């Protein structure tokens, strides 16, 4: 009987970074399962359309995935909800939606995967952050507050589960990721953007660090990006 491949779950596995992460882990010999609101065209691996903020749906679907593939060895939280608006024009719905889409989804993903990973000789749980994880800019009140909270949540999960053998990391993506959508939104030379496949390569390295040198927080940015 063929040995079962290790499982990688990517929450927020849409076109761009999510699919690049899926591709990198699949190339590395993992069985990959993507989760998200909308399936991209020709998704890598298996894709499940799922509201990641729905507690019941997430618990049921993750349990099904683990029953099929076994506990994951790598989990990536990559959901995002970008709201750019002056503070006075930011609605409560805008504010709540960013928290639901990023913080609540990470909470549910962690609750359904961290314990199974800890009980199965560990693994890696990676959270995609942003510049706004560290600095709240003008017009980014909703987005930055959620990203700050996501960073704190990741720290708490790391301090609880690292002693149990789960490597929990927060990756600060300090730049614009090069996707078709971002090229439409930003007037920026693609040479100054972050390549999704390069970020995926960094995530792969995080998932394969020896226990004596685990990184909790990693910041990535183009060489041209000021900081």
Question: Which terms would index this structure?
Answer:
227 residues; alpha/beta; Rossmann fold; 40% helix; globular
Notes on the protein architecture:
The chain has 227 residues and is of the alpha/beta class. It has a single domain, classed as NAD(P)-binding Rossmann-like Domain (Rossmann fold), CATH 3.40.50.720. Helix content is 40%, strand content 17%. The protein is built from 6 helices and 7 strands, in the order βαββαβαβαβααβ. It has helices at 17-27, 55-69, 92-118, 141-161, 180-185, 196-206, and strands at residues 7-11, 31-36, 46-49, 74-77, 123-130, 166-173, 217-220. It has a 7-stranded parallel beta sheet, with helices on both faces.
CATH architecture: 3-Layer(aba) Sandwich
- CATH class reads Alpha Beta
Average of per-residue pLDDT values: 95
Distance between the first and last residues' Cα: 52 Å
Which ranges are low-confidence, i.e. pLDDT below 50, for 5 or more consecutive residues? Answer: none
SS summary, helix count: 6
**Global Rg:** 17 Å
Write down the oligomeric state.
Answer: single chain
Strand tally: 7
Order of helices and strands: EHEEHEHEHEHHE
- CATH superfamily, please? NAD(P)-binding Rossmann-like Domain
Biggest beta sheet attributes: 7 strands, parallel
Structural class: alpha/beta
Q: Reading side by side through the largest sheet, how are the strands ordered?
A: 3-2-1-4-5-6-7
CATH topology: Rossmann fold
Number of domains: 1
> Which descriptor suits the 3D outline?
globular
Question: Percent of residues in beta strands?
Answer: 15-25%
Helix percentage range = 40-55%
């Amino acid at each position: 009987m063929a040995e079962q491949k290790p499982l990688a779950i990517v929450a927020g596995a849409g076109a761009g970074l999510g699919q690049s992460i899926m591709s990198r882990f699949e190339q590395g010999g993992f069985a990959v399962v993507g989760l998200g609101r909308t399936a991209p065209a020709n998704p890598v691996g298996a894709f499940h359309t799922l509201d990641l903020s729905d507690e019941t749906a997430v618990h049921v679907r993750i349990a099904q995935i683990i029953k099929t593939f076994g506990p994951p060895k790598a989990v990536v939280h990559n959901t995002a909800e970008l709201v750019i608006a002056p503070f006075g024009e930011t609605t409560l719905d805008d504010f709540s939606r960013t928290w639901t889409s990023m913080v609540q989804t990470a909470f549910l993903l962690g609750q359904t995967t961290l314990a199974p990973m800890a009980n199965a000789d560990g693994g890696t749980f990676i959270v995609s952050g942003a510049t706004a994880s560290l600095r709240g800019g003008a017009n980014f009140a909703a987005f930055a507050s959620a990203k700050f909270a996501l960073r704190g949540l990741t720290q708490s999960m790391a301090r609880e589960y690292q002693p149990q053998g789960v490597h929990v990391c927060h990756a600060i993506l300090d730049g614009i990721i090069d996707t078709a959508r971002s090229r439409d939104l930003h007037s920026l030379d693609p040479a100054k953007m972050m390549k999704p496949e390069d970020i995926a390569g960094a995530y792969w390295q995080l998932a394969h660090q020896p226990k004596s040198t685990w990184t909790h927080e990693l910041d990535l940015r183009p060489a041209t990006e000021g900081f």
